[in-house]
Write a structure and sequence with these properties.
This protein has one domain: TIM Barrel (Alpha-Beta Barrel). The chain is built from 17 helices and nine strands. The chain is of the alpha/beta class. Helices cover 41% and strands 12% of the residues. Bound molecules: zinc ion (ZN).
Length: 379
């Protein structure tokens, strides 16, 4: 092979294609009414106004498919935090909507905002409504956008809302998030070192919620009748265990943006046994680009920790078939210094090649595994 590293990366991104299974451009599109075809800035540290996954940086980074997470901030965040509430009041044009009315309607508005941004350039990006659609859109040389949802609080206690979401083309639901949602128990997932924790008095505990409620079982049973993938990120280890038991054998399970307890023994992360459990279903672990979760030592640079995590999942499962990238860019996260935004994702691919992963396996990690999950779980 004579081509340069850059050529090799571009070719692999084209062939794989590169998929990010958890990324939040919709937050900026909805909360700040951003035009996703404009890049603002990526900043050096945590910055809620930065822009790490707009379409310009996704294209620059050679990303082919995004599983675009729709997350409507829980009302508790504003109730628990005067500073956050005041900042949102001043800076977020949709503030009033964020703090009133139906969560489910707000979620649909966020979905509309994302689709509006997609429609600005139909020749370059398109919304996918099935796994086959993803292939067709990629063959047309465009970026494919897949709707996913983070946090079942938006269901507002009604499993029938899942029908609406399935009709809109939602491929995956992350059951838990920051607050009790009547579905499953969540872990405390706001980093302890994040400055807002000093300003706020977040009540982030599970408050004795059962691992999985009757409503949670009803949600899962409904999802088993729909083409919708279950994502266990943000649930407690006990909740995850209860969820695995409810899911049909042929359904792949996702953990879309996590690390492993081997390197950070936080309940947010997956144990070896759980990694094997997810692998048994044909599911995939999306490795998050956030040092806080990847490595208890919290280095500034992330790629060495990303590699250790990937290598560990490989060693535990004996294959490269259960690994993907779930960056969480624009999810109000603090990405590593060496991959600040989606334009730098070529470095992720370069790392895999430099570590000696064979090209066929690199393509699995970049996108083949994620596409396999879509084919099995989003028919
Ligand atoms: Zn998350």
């Amino acid at each position: 092979m004579n081509d340069s590293l850059d050529d090799r990366i571009a070719r692999l991104h084209e062939e794989a294609p590169l998929v990010d299974v958890h990324v939040h451009p919709s937050l900026k599109a909805y909360l700040f009414r951003r035009n996703l075809w404009r890049h603002y800035w990526s900043g050096k540290t945590f910055d809620p106004f930065s822009s790490r996954s707009d379409f310009t940086v996704l294209e620059k980074g050679g990303v082919g498919v995004i599983w675009s997470a729709l997350y409507l901030p829980e009302r508790g965040l504003f109730e628990d935090c005067f500073a956050l509430n005041a900042a949102a009041f001043l800076l977020v044009p949709v503030y009033r909507k964020l703090t009133s009315g139906s969560l489910f309607q707000r979620l649909l508005e966020m979905m509309d905002a994302m689709e509006r941004e997609v429609r600005r350039r139909p020749e370059r990006v398109e919304l996918a409504r099935s796994a086959a659609d993803v292939v067709r859109i990629r063959e047309a040389g465009k970026l494919a956008v897949v709707h996913t949802i983070e946090g079942a609080h938006v269901l507002e206690g009604d499993p029938d809302n899942l029908d609406v979401l399935a009709r809109r083309g939602v491929a995956m639901l992350t059951l838990c998030h920051f607050y009790p949602n009547g579905v499953a128990a969540h872990v405390d997932a706001i980093p302890k070192d994040m400055f807002v924790r000093d300003l706020c008095h977040f009540r982030l505990g599970a408050f004795g919620s059962p691992p999985l409620t009757d409503f949670g079982r009803a949600v899962l049973a409904k999802m088993m009748t729909l083409p919708m993938i279950v994502d266990v990120t943000h649930c407690t280890p006990e909740a995850r265990e209860a969820i695995y038991a409810e899911i049909d054998a042929e359904r792949p399970i996702m953990a879309s943006h996590v690390g492993v307890t081997r390197y950070n023994p936080d309940p947010y992360n997956l144990s070896d046994e759980e990694i094997r459990e997810i692998a048994r279903t044909g599911g995939v672990v999306g490795v998050i680009l956030m040092n806080y979760w990847l490595d208890a030592a919290r280095p500034r640079h992330g790629l060495p920790s990303v590699w250790k995590t990937i290598e560990h999942i490989h060693d535990v499962t004996g294959s490269w078939d259960h690994i993907a990238l779930g960056s969480d860019f624009d999810g109000f996260t603090d990405p590593p210094d060496d991959v600040r935004d989606a334009s730098q994702l070529g470095r992720f691919t370069a790392m895999l090649l430099e570590r000696g992963v064979a090209e066929g396996d690199v393509k699995r990690i970049l996108g083949g595994n994620a596409q396999r999950v879509l084919q099995a779980g989003w028919r």
